[in-house]
Amino acid sequence: MNEDRPSFRIDTRVRELLNDPIPDADEQGAPPTSRTREPSIDDIRFDILPEDLIAYLKNYIVGQDHAVEVIATKICTHFHRMALERKHSELPRIVGHVKSNMMAIGPTGVGKTYLIKLIAQKLNVPFVKGDATKFSETGYVGGDVEDLVRELVHQVGGDIKLAEYGIIYIDEIDKIASSGSVYGPDVSRGGVQRNLLKLMEETEVDMKVPHDLASQMEAVIETQRTGKAARKRVNTRNILFVMSGAFNGLTEIIARRLKKGGMGFTGETMTGVADTTFLLNKLHSADLVQYGFESEFVGRVPVMTYLDELTEEGLFGVLKNPNSSVVTSKKRDFAAYGIDLTFDDEALRLIAKEASHHGTGARGLVGVIERILLPFERSLPSAHARRVHITADVFRDPEAGLRAVLPKAIAEDFCDEFFERSGIILEFTTAAELAAQAEASRVGIPMRKWLETVLKDYELGLKLTGKERVTVTPDLLADPKGFLEKLVKKAFKGK
Questions:
Q1: What CATH architecture does domain 313-494 belong to?
Q2: What is the rounded distance in angstroms from the CA atom of residue 362 to the CA atom of residue 366?
Q3: Which whole number is the average pLDDT over 75-81?
């Protein structure tokens, strides 16, 4: 240990603050919100400007500049427009206005959901995520798309007015595209599209669900209390819909259209990340119609953007980002045990390289890191470890890395508690740590217990010597009693 004082168990709150370098952000990037009262419309950040929101998002999102700029700009404009209409209610309504519902296209693990969550939390607006594959046309099999609107209301404690300014995010929207068949599941997919179309335009969603016993009981109680049956409905006029999906095969449709237009591109010759980006940049509404979406549905989604696949370098950038939830989440897992977890760049690069072969984007990083850290997460808390540093060698052989870390962790913990009791600093050399581990293993007892046994007289003995710091070496551990006697004799002889 090189410090003047041993490093005691880290304070969890301090570690959390260290993992959140941006003052106005919590773990998922949300600004601080009041926890002492219910949220209200007054909490919504109608005033955030596009460039401010873009700058904020870039603290959390690696790359994806095009998607960040498009989505942030259009969402800001959406809320500024609502603020204008709230302030000037006398403004005439524009017939046929299409709000900025949007489609985000990109493979799994590139940050589509994370991006929209960050925006919703920064703006303090209700947010609900749904999976398009869970919905059916009737709602009897799977879920009803209107349930998403009802969930918005539940998210804000029943405040319908606040829910009407929320964001509904629907993932895997490509799974409800019809293949053109009039049989089988395509009929239901088309029905789900039409149900969503009504919500995206403007409709009234009844909070009372016929087959929901709880809502029926609530309605009965309300009727008995007031003497009339009040109908609670949510207007979807201002609710913003953001949809996303991988859209496998869409680039081939775009390539065929471009080839017909004389541009000479084919899906077979354009397969790289740069090629995919080029093709998605040429996306046209007609391509989505050919993919299987009804033209009316596509017409209600005027904003389309794409997120690039994360390469090995992009995944490394995610890990290096100080706000990366992948790394900070694991740091907090270890901080819960009082352990300071750090990584070197070479280890992070190897993690990114392995994750890039999984084809699941940033999600692959989580799996790789969990595999590496599991032995440490299992054993270091019992050893009362204070810190662990993950290197390339640890990545290649985590169990061997653990065996190398444990002696130091146990020795440091022993030194920390020794200091707390006596005020005397013990410092183990690396050779002494290994020697203690080897001797404890030879006699068949845990290293910590072995240290407590062989150094049991040192707390009192060192106080007699007046020493404030002692270095523990292999020679000391080979004859601890004799070493201590020499120190005591030397101290008294000096006096």
A1: Orthogonal Bundle (1.10)
A2: 7
A3: 94
Task: For the domain covering 23-310, report its CATH number.
Answer: 3.40.50.300
Q: Which pair of structure tokens corresponds to residue 341? A: 């977890």
> Model confidence over 13-23: pLDDT tens digits?
544 554 554 44
| Band of residue 10 on the pLDDT scale cut at 50, 70, 90 | low
Greatest mean pLDDT range, 87-91, 274-278, 398-402: 398-402
Is the overall model pTM greater than 0.85, yes or no? no
Query: Residue 426: beta bridge partners?
Result: 470
Which has more pLDDT, 98 or 460? 460
**Residue 188: pLDDT over 70:** no
Residues of the chain with CATH 3.40.50.300: 23-310
Q: Which residues lie closer than 8 Å to 221 by C-beta, 6 or more apart?
A: none
pLDDT of 293 > 50? The answer is yes
Interhelix angle 50-57/65-87, nearest 10 degrees: 140
- How many whole angstroms from its chain centre is CA 34? 22
Residues of the chain with CATH 1.10.8.60: 313-494
Q: Give which of 203, 171, 190, 199 is closest to 294, Cα–Cα.
A: 190
Sign of CA dihedral 297, 298, 301, 307: positive
The answer to whether the CB of 424 falls within 8 A of the CB of 469 is yes
Q: Is the pLDDT of residue 212 over 70?
A: no
Mean pLDDT (the chain, rounded): 83
Give the distance between the most distant pair of CA atoms in the chain.
102
147 C-beta neighbours (distance < 10 Å), count: 19
